[in-house]
Inverse folding.
């Protein structure tokens, strides 16, 4: 891939095999995609633009079209006629626009709770906006948890960093009752077939890299390799393949709060 002529030929073949040889626009939404995935596809000539929206605003929110390599990890800029702001008190992304819903059917209390007094819809997402108007989601308000030390941890950004390791198929950062958070992980099929020592060495390297890039109170105490995959059928994933964090924490509560040993532990 690093050799110009050969790399171009290989990239062209990969695009053709993926059915993307003639794609003019590739987009990702519904759930976060790791920056490393976008950067890898960029190397083979496939630019994936992220977008964001909700059922409550007819999915008319923001997008990173046209693609900008320097804005990878962002959901882009708000669409025309969309007034998007970041709440000063908790960093929530709030949105107002012609595509916003009027109400939840026969649920006036839920409708009122979902809107601010001046008419903005409360998305539940936390985020930041840079000087160019590009928005980056930093987590979900409901997913933020407090450790036993009384420090708040936002799991989504940490999970995204861990997912840069292709050995990790699924991840959930948790630890509301722990002094330091931990990450439950499910290995990829390839990793499950690889030598245990090699896998654990790679995971330990990733753990050290991630911990070096985040605040000390959020540093992960360990990675825990889970035995079973998380699926829609076993109730640990939503139909859109998002991890049901609270269901997962309830199911493995006793295990999560038990005394684990080593930086890389196993269920």
């Amino acid at each position: 891939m690093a050799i110009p002529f050969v790399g171009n030929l290989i990239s062209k073949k990969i695009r053709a095999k993926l059915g993307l040889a003639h794609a003019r626009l590739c987009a990702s939404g519904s759930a976060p995609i790791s920056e490393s995935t976008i950067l890898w596809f960029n190397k083979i000539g496939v630019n994936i633009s992220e977008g964001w929206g909700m059922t409550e605003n007819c999915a008319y929110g923001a997008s990173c079209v046209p693609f900008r390599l320097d804005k990878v990890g962002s959901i882009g800029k708000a669409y025309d006629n969309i007034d998007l702001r970041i709440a000063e008190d908790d960093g929530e992304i709030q949105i107002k626009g012609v595509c916003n819903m009027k109400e939840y059917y026969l649920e006036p209390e839920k409708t009122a709770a979902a809107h601010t007094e001046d008419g903005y819809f409360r998305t539940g997402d936390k985020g930041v906006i840079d000087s160019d108007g590009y928005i980056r989601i930093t987590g979900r308000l409901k997913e933020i948890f407090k450790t036993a030390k009384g420090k708040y941890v936002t799991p989504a950004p940490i999970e995204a960093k861990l997912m840069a390791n292709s050995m990790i198929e699924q991840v959930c950062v948790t630890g509301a009752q722990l002094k330091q958070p931990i990450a439950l992980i499910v290995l990829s099929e390839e990793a499950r077939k690889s030598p245990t020592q090699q896998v654990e060495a790679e995971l330990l390297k990733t753990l050290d890299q991630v911990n070096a890039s985040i605040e000390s109170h959020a540093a992960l105490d360990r990675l825990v390799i889970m035995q079973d995959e998380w699926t829609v059928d076993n109730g640990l994933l939503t139909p859109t393949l998002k991890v049901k964090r609270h269901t997962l924490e309830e199911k493995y509560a006793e295990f999560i709060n038990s005394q684990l040993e080593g930086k890389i532990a196993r269920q």
